[in-house]
Design a protein that fits this description.
The complex is a heterodimer.
Chain A lengths: L6 H16 L4 H29 L3 E4 L10 E4 L1 H20 L1 H7 L5 H20 L3 H20 L4 H32 L4 H14 L3 H18 L9 H7 L2 H27 L1 H6 L2 H22 L3 H22 L2 H30 L13 H4 L1 H15 L5 H15 L4 H26 L17 H19 L2 H14 L1
Chain B lengths: L1 H19 L6 H25 L4 E8 L2 E6 L2 H24 L6 H20 L3 H19 L5 H31 L20 H16 L10 H8 L2 H27 L1 H4 L3 H23 L3 H22 L2 H32 L10 H4 L1 H15 L5 H15 L5 H28 L17 H19 L2 H14 L1
Antiparallel strand pairs in B: 1-2
Helix pairs in contact in B: 1-2, 1-4, 2-3, 2-4, 3-4, 3-9, 3-13, 3-18, 4-5, 4-9, 5-6, 5-9, 6-7, 6-8, 7-9, 7-11, 8-9, 8-12, 9-12, 9-13, 11-12, 11-17, 12-13, 12-16, 12-17, 13-15, 13-16, 13-18, 13-19, 15-17, 15-18, 16-17, 16-18
């Protein structure tokens, strides 16, 4: 079974090759290549996950047999392969769910480009997940940024170009900071491989040298990734980028791209700096505070919003806040909760974006709430899916969001100083979430007498309905049988150390 | 075991089926389906607490430490009986009443789902299962509130939702703290937190207990988070108001009973600041609810305020934590459930036949609908607490229990406020009877016509009235049973 060790590398390479091949294909063919790629990668990641679970330890794959410190390494453990598996599944569902919008929103001759970008994006996500080398990580961060900009811009109208430019500027600022931090770290330690850096950092800290440069490097890397993952107050680019791009892009951006950066930050915390050193650096408290503020202000902005897509986008700001709050606890339990929330939010947010587009489609493409009245009756599948997504977001038991909230609260109860602020803000944020999501659900289920808009049934959109059902199943599964996933996350985090 | 699951999931599935299927060709088919669902669920619920009494089982594990478990004990039997009686009577009443409303299919769909969720609450075996269905109850009963779709109804249901969410979250905070201090969250008489009584975390646990009391108390309309109740209950269709006011709020009471007597244990809370604060809150609510009801001109709203006040009678008895008072509380759960259903159904019958909602418009109503008004009067006497009706026995036990306890000040203040409130109860319920039967000399008898509603409406009212009187006439066996139950959980 040892050939499974090649799978992470193969899956990244497949993405790159698929991108190259697709650039010479027509739209439909590129779509098929992309679908095949995603299915293959799902299978490969599942195999890797099974392998690491069975082995009970992570493995390092040395590219081209060049040993460190010259060669490049890939490392796969339970957490990495779980993330890769999840990313592939969600991207597959998001792309299928938004396909009809893509075909109608993107110029005929440019459709293949969308799939090229998607292939590249997947390669960068997988690389961020698997890599054991800081410089490789940086390279793929840039690839990720470029392809994400393309995904925002592919549906060309004024708003998307503005959004893409904004995203580009903020993202480049973030990558710049990451690069600066990385350079400083390289200066301090002389290594680029994660495991080697960690040893050197431990040594430096033990000797008490370079305290300030080390802190500055940690700050630069953390803030850089925070900007890229839209932590409050660096979220200004987000609502436009998620709100106006084509729906698949919005789903992928919100549930995968920002999560890729967060996962990289987790890797930096555990594998590069070391959890204890990072915790003692106090940056964690700043992340905690901004996480809490994001939870409140994101929801408040969402309540004020009158456009369903932008509302969902603002809710992302709040959810990213949850994740950083979990980091900020500075405990194993907090980190587990954050990682679980990465998964549950990814599953729920992409569901919401995809369901929202079904609702706006049966409301004459209007995204204002007043037009959405009764949309849940006109498109029953989208209505049901949106309701499930909303319940999950609010954190009703039996859905994925409840388990996140449960894990966060359990983590909070263990931390004496941060317990009260965390629990109070969790409570306020839950109620705020309930306000805007339930308002929307009531709105889409308020009957209207005579509507000018036609209804959609299963016959009009079989693929879309199937995708929604798959998403619902995913959310309920995460909510009902979360224990295996949580166990895997714990195991994976243990392997990080 | 299967009976319990069936009694929960059959109504939920039937309700979902009604919601998703397309409009029935005739109203009769819809009613037949609903009727079959209600009777079947009622039978299953009764069967499960007779056949599966004392059993418990775990359905599955939400996470390793959080099993979803069901169990049947005496408390389940008490609340389940009430649920079945009220939901069947109000369901039967709906068949006639809902003629003048639209969207009947949706109404019956959610009505059945609520039935299933209520069964689940009665049979929940641990705190997590209970919390899970408690949240579901809020979400599934909300469509009953917003049924007519008007702006007022939607705002009321949103208010209901936010208060409930707020309360549920406060309770959830308590659940987390408790689960941090105890390995299991199974309901067991006398509580599960003996080990934590003297430990350093006791202070935090008391705070958690208070949060859970206030949080679960939201459903039971306890001050300070009671404001949703008088807004939300009256805008629902009358039979739904009856269910909301008689049974769904009792879920809040059940939650408090489970928390205090099955999780924390009475000994843990007796004599602490939590008990004092709780007593103060309940007495404020009793008085304030009656006062507001007294000043309220719209009949259904008046009844809703009365619910606020009456529920805190029950909470007061539970807060006293003595055998006698708890017996009174549990008896009042039953009495108030039956009486309030009957009152709301009477109000519904009046609205259905005359279309009038304000008390001052109802002069001479007793001449038009004598049977309904007689029932109204009899159950009103019960709620005031005049013997030989059900309310008298429960209030008697409450007052005696309070006087027997050793709590300073409240042991006599409680009964005083209960008496004042009883006076106010008479003041807000009886004017309708007096004006209804004695409209005065200038009443126009010429145009008087008898318009008693159809038997589908009068029979449920009559059944509930008779039951409430029977409790008052022959309380001995029931009281004995409840006294034993109260002694066991203390």
């Amino acid at each position: 079974m040892d050939f499974v060790r090649n799978f992470p590398c193969i899956s990244i390479m497949l993405c790159l090759f698929a991108g190259i091949i697709s650039s010479g294909l027509r739209g439909k063919a590129a779509m098929l290549v992309n679908a095949a790629l995603l299915v293959t990668n799902t299978v490969l990641s599942a195999c890797t996950l099974a392998y690491t679970l069975a082995a009970g330890e992570s493995f390092v794959y040395v590219m081209g047999q060049f040993p460190a410190p010259w060669g490049n390494e890939i490392r796969a453990g339970v957490l990495e392969s779980l993330m890769a598996l999840f990313f592939c599944i969600i991207m597959l569902l998001s792309l299928f769910g938004g396909r009809h919008k893509l075909i109608e929103g993107v110029e005929e001759g440019k459709l293949y480009l969308y799939y090229v970008l998607m292939d590249l994006l997947l390669s960068s996500l997988l690389a961020l997940v698997y890599t054991n080398d800081m410089f490789t990580a940086y390279v793929f961060v840039e690839i990720n940024t470029i392809s994400a900009c393309g995904l925002i811009m592919i549906r060309q109208n004024g708003r998307t170009i503005e959004a893409a430019v904004r995203y580009m500027i903020m993202s480049l600022l973030g990558s710049g900071m990451l690069l600066l931090g990385l350079c400083m770290l390289y200066d301090l330690t002389g290594h680029l491989l994660m495991s080697n850096i960690k040893e050197s950092v431990a040594q430096i800290v033990a000797e008490g040298q370079y305290t300030i440069p080390l802190i500055i490097s940690i700050v630069l890397m953390s803030v850089g990734l925070c900007i890229k993952s839209a932590l409050f107050p660096f979220h200004a680019w987000l609502p436009d980028a998620y709100g106006y791009s084509t729906v698949s892009s919005a789903a992928v951006l919100s549930s995968l791209v920002s999560k890729g950066y967060i996962f990289l930050l987790i890797k930096i915390i555990y594998r590069v700096i070391g959890f204890e050193i990072y915790r003692d650096s106090r940056i964690i408290d700043i992340l905690f505070v901004f996480g809490l503020m994001g939870m409140i202000f994101g929801s408040l902005s969402a309540i004020r919003e009158n456009d369903i897509r932008r509302m969902i986008a603002f809710s992302s700001v709040a959810q990213i806040g949850y994740i950083y709050m979990g980091f900020g606890m500075g405990t194993e339990a907090g980190m587990t909760a954050s990682v679980f929330h990465i998964l549950s939010h990814a599953a729920t947010k992409s569901l919401l974006f995809i369901a929202a587009v079904g609702l706006t489609d049966v409301s004459g493409r209007n995204r204002q709430f007043i037009e959405l009245t009764g949309a849940g009756y006109r498109n029953k599948w989208a209505g049901a899916a949106f309701t499930v997504g909303s319940l999950a977001m609010v954190g009703v038991p039996m859905f994925s969001g409840f388990i996140s909230k449960l894990l966060f609260s359990q983590a909070a109860v263990q931390n004496n100083t941060k317990m009260l602020p965390a629990l109070i803000v969790l409570g306020i944020s839950t109620i705020l979430n309930a306000i805007y999501f339930m308002k929307t659900v009531i709105r889409i289920y308020t009957p209207v007498e005579d509507t000018p808009y036609p209804s959609m049934t299963f016959r009009n959109m079989p693929l879309y309905a199937v995708v929604l059902v798959a998403f619902i199943i995913l959310n309920v599964t995460l909510g009902v049988s979360s224990q295996p996933v949580v166990d895997m996350i714990r195991q994976g985090l243990a392997m990080f150390a | 075991m299967y009976l319990i699951l069936l009694s929960i999931f059959i109504p939920i599935l039937m309700g979902l089926y009604l919601l998703v299927r397309k409009e029935y060709a005739s109203r009769g088919r819809l009613l037949a389906t609903t009727c079959a669902g209600l009777v079947l669920t009622g039978a299953l619920a009764v069967a499960s607490f007779t056949a599966a009494y004392g059993s418990s089982f775990t359905l599955f594990y939400l996470t390793k430490s959080l099993p979803i478990a069901f169990a049947v004990d005496e408390m389940s039997v008490l609340f389940s009986c009430l649920t079945v009686i009220v939901l069947l009577c109000a369901g039967l009443f709906s068949f006639e009443y809902m003629k003048h409303e639209t969207k009947e299919k949706r109404y019956y769909g959610f009505y059945l789902i609520v039935f299933g969720v209520l069964n689940a609450l009665c049979f929940a075996g641990n705190l997590v299962t209970f919390y899970l269905f408690f949240e579901m109850l809020t979400l599934t009963s909300m469509p009953l509130v917003l049924h007519n779709g008007s702006h007022e109804a939607i705002m009321a249901s949103l208010k209901y939702l936010f208060f409930s969410m707020c309360g549920a979250y406060m309770a959830l905070f308590g659940v987390f703290v408790v689960s941090h201090n105890s390995a299991v969250l199974t309901f067991s008489t006398g509580g599960i937190l003996h080990a934590a009584a003297g430990s350093p975390s006791a202070g935090l646990l008391l705070a958690a207990a208070f949060a859970m009391l206030v949080g679960f108390g939201v459903k039971a309309g306890m001050f300070p988070l009671h404001a949703w109740l008088p807004t939300a209950h009256p805008v629902a269709p009358a039979p739904a108001s009856a269910v909301l006011s008689a049974v769904i709020v009792k879920a809040g009471i059940l939650a408090v009973v489970r928390t205090v007597y099955y999780i924390f244990g009475a000994d843990f809370l007796r004599g602490t600041w939590v008990q004092t604060a709780w007593l103060i809150l309940t007495l404020i609510t009793v008085f304030m609810g009656s006062m507001l009801a007294y000043r309220e001109p719209v009949l259904k709203k008046r009844l809703a305020y009365s619910t606020v006040s009456q529920l805190s009678y029950i909470l007061f008895g539970l807060a006293v934590m003595g055998a006698e008072a708890v017996t009174g509380s549990l008896l009042h759960v039953l009495a108030h459930g039956l009486i309030k259903t009957a009152l709301f159904l009477c109000a519904g019958a009046i609205i259905f036949t005359t279309g009038r909602t304000r008390v001052d418009e109802l002069r001479g109503i007793g001449k038009e609908m004598p049977f309904t008004m007689w029932c109204y009067t009899i159950v009103s006497l019960g709620l005031i607490g005049i013997p030989p009706t059900g309310g008298f026995v429960s209030k008697w036990h409450l007052a005696i229990g309070s006087l027997q306890s050793a709590i300073p000040v409240f042991r006599w203040l409680g009964p005083v406020i209960l008496l004042v409130s009883a006076l106010l109860t008479a003041g807000y319920l009886l004017p309708l009877t007096i004006q209804g039967f004695l409209p005065g000399a200038d009443y126009d008898y010429e145009h008087l016509k008898k318009r008693e509603p159809s038997p589908l409406m009068t029979i449920p009212i009559a059944v509930l009235t008779i039951l409430s009187v029977l409790i008052g006439l022959f309380p001995a066996q029931l009281t004995d049973w409840l006294t034993r139950l109260a002694a066991r959980i203390l």
